[in-house]
Amino acid sequence: FTEMQLNLPVADATAQQERNQEVIVAISSDGRFTVNKTPINSRDVQGLSQALAQSTQTMENPMVIISADAQASHQSVIQVLEAAQTSGLQHITFAAQSRTRSVPLP
Fold first, then answer.
1. Intervals of the chain under pLDDT 50
2. What pTM, to 2 d.p., does this model score?
3. Is 69 exposed, middle or buried (0-12, 13-18, 19+ CB in 10 A)?
4. Which has the closest alpha carbon to 64: 105, 99, 27, 10?
5. What is the percent of the chain with per-residue pLDDT over 90, rounded to a whole number?
6. Which of 8, 57, 72, 103 has the most C-beta neighbours closer than 10 Å?
């Protein structure tokens, strides 16, 4: 696959500015991973950790952004968190799709 289609969870948030010290880990609904849009063949922590380490080797204090499909498994997200920890990455956040004004808050 070249690009994953993600159905992001919705949250009330303002759009963030793009920064060059970010690495985006996308998780599809069926558990596939990409790191900065590059597909990762491995679905285990070690393979993800290697991909993260490689993607962040020239970055100073990188931010990992986890962009998981709303239907992605909790375990897939945990694997990314473990891989980031194994790689020594400490700054982690999650991407969410902004709510539209027509969607009422619960």
1. 1-2, 101-102, 105
2. 0.75
3. buried
4. 27
5. 65
6. 72
